[in-house]
Structure formats: C-alpha cells, structure tokens
Amino acid sequence: MNQFIRKAGILYGMTMLLSSMVYAQDLPFCISLQTNEFYTPPVEKDFQLNKPYVPYVKVFLPEKEKATGRAVVICPGGGYGMVAFGHEGTRWAGFYNDLGIAAIVVKYRLPHGDYKIPVSDAETAMQIVKDSADVWNINRDDVGIMGFSAGGHLASTIATHTDSVLRPNFQILFYPVITMDKSYTHLGSHDSFLGKDASKEMEDLFSNEKQVTASTPPAFITLAADDKVVPPTNGINYFQALIKNNIYATLHVYPIGNHGWGYRRSYRFNQAILDELTLWLENIDKKKK
Questions:
Q1: 268 belongs to a structural domain
Q2: Distance from the Cα of residue 215 to its chain's centroid
Q3: Residue ranges of the chain with pLDDT lower than 50?
Q4: pLDDT digits (tens, 9 = 90+) for 48-84
Q5: Alpha-carbon distance 216 to 238, whole Å?
Q6: CA-CA distances (angstroms) from residue 133 to 13, 17, 19, 73, 238?
Q7: Which of 126, 136, 147, 165 is nearest to 69 (CA)?
Q8: Number of domains in the chain
Q9: What pairs with residue 148 in β-bridges?
Q10: Range of the domain at 35
C-alpha cells in the first residue's frame, strides 16, 4: 500500500492531452510537475544551492525507429540541497536514447526536512510517464528509475515504498545514499530529508535496506570503494538485502572514483560502467529464467 499521498493535480485526461501534442513540440521538452503543462524552465545550472524553482521533468524520447518501449526516470543527486541536473541527469539522455530508451530527468523540489516533497515529485514523474505511455511509445511495464547519491535514496525510496501502480520495474543506483541510520548515512541528506531531529522510527522507515521485500524491483548498483562522501556500505547493504530477498541484482565496486562522477568521460571506469549497464539492461528480461 502506498505510504504517501499522491499529488492531487495528476489527472489522467490532462496528461494524455498534453502527451498527444508532444510531437508537435521541439524535443526534448519539459512538463511542470505542478500543472502538468508544457513548461520552459530558466537556464539549467548544476550546483545551485537552495534556490526555489518550479519542479519539472525534461523528456528525451528516442527516435521512433529505435524505440524499445523502455523508459528510465532519472533522479539526480545533490544531498537534497540541490539537484545536479546536468552530469547526473540530462547528460545521460544520449546514452539511453541510443539504446532506444526514453530518458525522463526529474528536477524535484528540495525537502527542507519534509520528505513528502521530493517523494511526491518523483511519484508524479512516474505517473506522467505511465499516463503518457501510449503516445510516447513506452511500455507501462518497462519503466525504471535511476538515482545518484541522494537521488539514489529518492529512487530506492520509490522502489521500496510505492504501491504496485507506480513501482518501477527496475532501479539503477550510482553511489547511492540508502540508509538514514546516522552511523553511516550521508548526514547532509539525512538532515535535509528528515530533519536533524528525526525520530528513530522515521530513520528506520527511510533506511531502504530495511524496506526490501520480494516485490522490490531488480537493481543495478555501482559505486567506488574510496567514496569519502557516501559510505560504500550504503550500496553494499542494500545489495545484500536484495539478494536475501532473491531479487535480481548486481553490484559493481570500482577501486577509485570517490563520489559524484555521474556521466563524465574523463572518469577512468566510465566506459566499463556503460558497458556493464548496457549488458544488464539487455539481460534484465531474462531475470526469471
């Protein structure tokens, strides 16, 4: 059962009306998460701390001839204090579109201690993709979620907390924050998401390694062993919880890289990660065989 209240403004008919207009628009295009209308954001900048903005998704559809029907909703990181929309968001569009996969990047609002805010935005993004599936040439049963750092916490929250209607079909997590346990979380993400004085009950609820069940979607997890920002035990413990519950999952730990490399060709293991991710995506449909 969904533990969150979905945004009341999501209307199936409105979303379908908008989506039917897509191919008359320039691609990519943006949709406001508050109005479900086409939206033109101001110039997108990484690393803008705590500046208010309208939440939206930026939609990158592959060429119709290449489209596989798969989509990935991308949640960039930023410690829940900003959204790294470029190297952990829009720069991934080309990679996915070349594979015939739609990429939908979420500029979610910052929580300032109220976890419901980014969670609501991420759920709204999932809803928009599913409601627009017919027009965007997307399979509603092949919509995954991807997250980086704190965006990995948001993505894994959607993967472990939402009901079956919005639950993603797979999850891709890069150097993710997973836990809210203060002994090994990223404290900045903890304080921004739950507040500094969060109860043990709330910390446990959003320690997503504790929320894995047999219904949790398959996962691709990658991180660097020398990460000094988010302890690698976040991703490792999540992987162990997935395996314990017989979830199809893979974990790739690279010896160096620290944190936050996103989509950077200069990162030594960038191509290796892209190759592994491509292979995993090609084989995910065989997970039950």
A1: yes
A2: 18
A3: 1-14, 17, 24-25, 288-289
A4: 666 788 999 999 999 999 999 999 999 999 999 999 9
A5: 11
A6: 13, 12, 9, 13, 30
A7: 136
A8: 1
A9: 174
A10: 12-286
